[in-house]
Amino acid sequence: MTRIIVVTSGKGGVGKTTCTANLGMALAKSDRRVVVIDADFGLRNLDLLLGLENRIVYTALDVLAKQCRLDQALVKDKRQPTLALLPAAQNRSKESITPEQMSILVDALKPHYDYILIDCPAGIEMGFRNAIATANEAIVVTTPEISAVRDADRVIGLLEANDVKRLHLIVNRLKPAMVQADMMMSVQDVQDILAIPLLGVIPDDERVIVSTNRGEPLVLEPKLSLAGLAFANIAQRLRGDKVPFLDLSAPHDDLFSRLRRMFRS
Amino acid sequence: MTSDSLPTPITQLSPNSGEVSPGSQVRFKSEGGRLLLLLPPAADTHSADSPADGPADWPLNWPELWLQIKQRLNGGDRFWQPQTAVHLVARDRLLDVRQLQAIEAALAEQQLTLRRVYTSRRQTAVAAATAGYSIEQQTSLAHLTPVATEAEQALEEPLYLQNTVRSGTEVRHPGTIVVLGDTNPGSRLVAAGDIFVWGRLRGVAHAGSAGNPHCRIMALHLEPTQLRIADKVALPPANPPVRYQPEVAYIGASGIHIATAADFARTYLSHPSR
Ligand SMILES: Nc1ncnc2c1ncn2[C@@H]1O[C@H](COP(=O)(O)OP(=O)(O)OP(=O)(O)O)[C@@H](O)[C@H]1O
Ligand SMILES: [Mg+2]
Question: Angle at which helices A146-161 and A187-194 pack, to 10 degrees?
């Protein structure tokens, strides 16, 4: 059964697209057939994060307008052939597509993929409704900030009311030192309010921004950074494996020696 | 009573604010073995002469209406007998075939059957007939909307919700509200009667919204954004003592007071005269 997962947040800029790109790539690396759909019409950038911008010929809208076939619009990743991107149109608004059209696209993709990840635009308007229309699971991304958590809470309510009931949480951009100094919400504080199962925590890390600019998801690094490892672990948990949570506050050396021990055993 | 903590009173509400007009939200009501699904009217009849009622009484559009139907269904599902017939009281709302079918499907998920549609709109009646529901077109719905006309004082049966009331959700009910779950920051409960939260109350809660100062707000953990009872408003103390004890908010001598449930019971419940 194909899993159709929307990556959503309510608040903008908290890391939905970063998560979609990394999880898509990590799942593909483990030989799953993955398609990532950019549902952010008008503000697309999933293609950028994946480094696929220059290979886009057609978009989802061209498929719907019957200007091309679906497989012509799909951009296959050269690094990971089991990963494909269905790009959004850049020159159109979020109202240019309906939830019904979204279903048509997803239904057509379903037979060919194990995972369909949908990168949702910020907000709770039309673009959000399109993105969640066909999903049967959601990954809710938030940063440990009150405003982001508030919006995530709202979005969870809307997802539940729209029968998307399998929900998971990613807390992104955590700064352990700030949490320790009581200047930032802890993961526990966030979970206390949102009360959905935690999929993972990603530390705030400059390398995320660098990888964004390069169009190379962190999970492709030959030697994974902490953030890259966090994404890889999340992908594994998504697949149903039990992976212990990283201790983000531990000094790096510690962590890697511990991991090496884990791999040896 | 020394254990009373005094929340900060901020202001008095104007007499009408927060009043729950009984028809302002989607409501389920059992009546004679069937379940009525009452939709709020499309045209708000008294908004013209009392604009102070505010946004809460503005007519809902379909997505909002749909959300409320789903939330009420999700929150109350343990109480319905399977195959109970539901009569949809659509009043003056325009519903098309697709919307009616969506409602039917949502009801069916809880094993409720849409049996009949009451409407005062010809188009809705036509849509209902097209979709194959029995319809009752009527100009007056007096017998199905008893609260709208008489007995503004009599409270509705309590509204019971078993779920987390999340940010952005406002639950208004012309009776007592019982929540089995948390209410999160950014949520609002407005009840003409009492409010019970079997969980953490962290949003805004307004009891006695029609003006009854004897109403109470009770929660396992009272950590509200704001409390209101009748026309009184209070903020929680700036640094609330962390008390993981059930608490009760009520109107005392100097506005809204908060006491632990145990103290409240000793002081108030054993002296009915207070
Ligand atoms: N863990 C992190 N550490 C540091 N920077 C991060 C992290 N996660 C995301 N960012 C940065 O935050 C910015 C926004 O990320 P991203 O585009 O993924 O968010 P979004 O939720 O998709 O935004 P939008 O709502 O606009 O679609 C990017 O510049 C990204 O590099
Ligand atoms: Mg994005």
Answer: 30
